[in-house]
Amino acid sequence: MRARLVAAALVAMLLGATGCGLRDASPDGTDPGAAMPAPLSVIRQGNEITLSGDVPDPAAKRALLDAVITSADDVTVVDRLGVTPGAATPDFAASAPVFEAAAVIGDFALHAAADRVTLAGTAAKPGEAVAVEAAARDAWPHIDIVNELGISAPGTR
């Protein structure tokens, strides 16, 4: 019995060494373990803004970082962005006005995909929410903008 186990282990090692072992691939040849682009998020919690998800190239990453960094004073930006060729995100080259308008919203969040941008958070005044949505529509005129920004009730701020 022991000899069979040793023989089986040797065969598995030989097959693995020659590339004939088990493979993590689907029948169509794609690697299911390959990283899929993560949805992109910009989340502000007080004075910290965290960027996460994937962008298609370093230029897109720089455009988003610049837009966020220049949008508000006294914030810490946490960069958790990855660069994944083929990641589908909106063009952030003209997005600075969105983050500038949202600078007054302490719990602002933006979630983006190729064809949709969702805005969330709690504005103190209706005009703040309207300004953020208008800036988003200007920045991305051909993308679906979903406005989930709420307005805080009087006396809650």
From TrEMBL:
InterPro entries attached to this UniProt entry: ArfA_BON-like (IPR054121)
Domain Peptidoglycan-binding protein ArfA BON-like: 40-85
Record keywords: Signal
Coiled coil spans: none
UniProt entry tagged with the keyword Signal: yes
PROSITE patterns cross-referenced by the UniProt entry: PROKAR_LIPOPROTEIN
Protein's UniProt name: Peptidoglycan-binding protein ArfA BON-like domain-containing protein
